[in-house]
Amino acid sequence: MVSRSMSNVFLKPYLIPLPSKFLFPNTLKPSLALTLKTTFFIPHFSTTPLSYGPSLRKGTIPSHSQSQSSQNQNDAVLREEAFTRVFLLAALRVPSAECSALEGRLRGHLLNWPRVRNIARVPGDDLDPSLAPLLPQPINGDGEFENEEERTLVSVQRRIHGKADGDGEVLSPVLYRDKLARTFNSRGFVKFRNLAKISRPNRNKKRKKMKEAMEVEEGRRVGQNGFAVVEVVEEEEEDSVGMRRLLGEEFASSKWRGSTRLLLLDERYAGRSVEELPEAIKAVLKEYAEKSTMLTLELVRCKLTLFYDYWQMTEVLETLLPAGMIIPSAFETVGHIAHLNLRDEHLPYKRLIAKVVLDKNRPKIGTVVNKIDSIQNEYRTMQLEVLAGNHSLVTTVVENGIRFQVDLATVYWSSRLGTERQRLLSGFTRTDVVCDVFSGVGPLAISAARIVKRVFANDLNPYAVEYLERNSVLNKLEKKIKVFNMDGRRFIKSLYASDISQSITQVVMNLPSEAAEFLDAFRGIYKNRPKDGEYTFPMIHVYGFSKARDPEFDFHERIRIALVEVAVKVDVRRVRLVAPGKWMLCASFILPKSVAFANSTVDT
């Protein structure tokens, strides 16, 4: 029997032993633990066949994670340790100089998991082979050496790295300059102004600080963004004998010189010996052995540990939520706020869902909210409940290169209408004058001000008007926007009662729940003026909802009824499906002359 045991591979650059932990470079950042007042949930697993790749239903849970989870099942916190999974893999340890060539030859047989590189790197294992013989071994733990010759070699090694200021040797000018620069930067001797000129900037200072922040106590992963860790599980003789049979008796896996890398083999080859590897891998290894003068290859067993930060949001929620429940995978993003629309079945798990959404979308997302009621008030504001993160609902949104400050507690904003607003803007010209009847905080009005000649923006909500003015100044467009705070019907009548009416070419009415009912305000706007004059009849863009079988026809009929005019040529298009069977539509038409010169308006 071959005995397996966990061991540390001691590499000795600069006389410091390092453990055999190999980190993957990645782009994710470990999330901060959040304590939530919710019940602790035990992950469940289905019995469906497992596919290729990592999964929370595959691998093993470390013993310490199992014990911690069992001891804290009644705590009001989500235990991230329960999502740690360990996978046993096979890997080829090769010299770093040959790693790239071998990776290309073995690409089809290497690990192909998302967000996990198939090359594991040893931190600190990049020592120049020519310097390795100069580094002696201390004979005890106190740093004492066997003779004076070894002590001299240590002094040489220290001078190489600029640390020879305690053994009586004079530093070279370059090392002396570096020493002064480090002293100046760390102690802040501002009176030595010339030191700032000769000091070289440390480009990796920020990276080193982040790395040192992750250098923590024993038992945690090390590195800048460690969501995966590889540990070598060494076997005694079996793999070494297999390599000798394959490559020749001169093979010696234990004599490593210089830096090395691990090529992680596909999960199908976990637990296999050298003789059981595919012939394609054997052929590449034999070819490498024939060309190389120093045969340094080793088949090792590895433990790949994936932590909570590795798993995607949907994978975590699928494990935590009851089987058969729809996974809430989509949400609207407004600045740093994630806006959820949870179903009734999700409400018992709302804080659990919010924590996972927050963890998996940091640092972009800082607050998670849920809409607890439909929009029913006249200001179109939503009733929101903060589920996770900070409780500030004031955020900044960037759309079409323009910044908007928004307070979701007092105003309305929908990022999902960004594409529709861009479509409208593409139809505006430099000679247009736009009238935005329900402007809100100005997503359309301010964007249009960069294109058109003039914008008249109105909203009934005083908080929205305040943010509209603030955003106009923020984007330096306040001179092209005239702001009003009144009812939409009164706004339309007051504009067309003045001389401004002759210049208005575009009217936007984006209040889908009620906009069509405000169209009666256009009846008789020119009734007191002579009909033989030259007038500008605006293009009106009105939005609405429809649940009818034929939503275009239904919305068209409502427009005819509001205008009390049958002969209205309307172009109706679907914007988006807001709910099952409920469409948001946009109708565009030129105001008919018969409506503008009507003898009377409809009573409201």
TrEMBL record:
Alphabetized UniProt keyword annotations: Cytoplasm, Methyltransferase, Mitochondrion, Nucleus, S-adenosyl-L-methionine, Transferase, tRNA processing
Description of how the protein assembles with itself and partners: Monomer.
Protein name per its UniProtKB record: tRNA (guanine(37)-N1)-methyltransferase
Record EC number: 2.1.1.228
Listed PANTHER family: TRNA (GUANINE(37)-N1)-METHYLTRANSFERASE 2 (PTHR23245:SF43), TRNA METHYLTRANSFERASE (PTHR23245)
Protein's GO biological process: mitochondrial tRNA methylation; tRNA N1-guanine methylation
Function: Specifically methylates the N1 position of guanosine-37 in various cytoplasmic and mitochondrial tRNAs. Methylation is not dependent on the nature of the nucleoside 5' of the target nucleoside. This is the first step in the biosynthesis of wybutosine (yW), a modified base adjacent to the anticodon of tRNAs and required for accurate decoding.
Primary location class: mitochondrion
Positions with biased composition (Low complexity): 65-74
Record-linked InterPro entries: MeTrfase_TRM5/TYW2, SAM-dependent_MTases_sf, TRM5-TYW2-like_MTfase, TRM5/TYW2-like_N, tRNA_Gua_MeTrfase_euk
Residues binding S-adenosyl-L-methionine: 421, 459-460, 487-488, 510
Domain SAM-dependent methyltransferase TRM5/TYW2-type: 331-593
Chain positions covered by the region annotation Disordered: 56-75
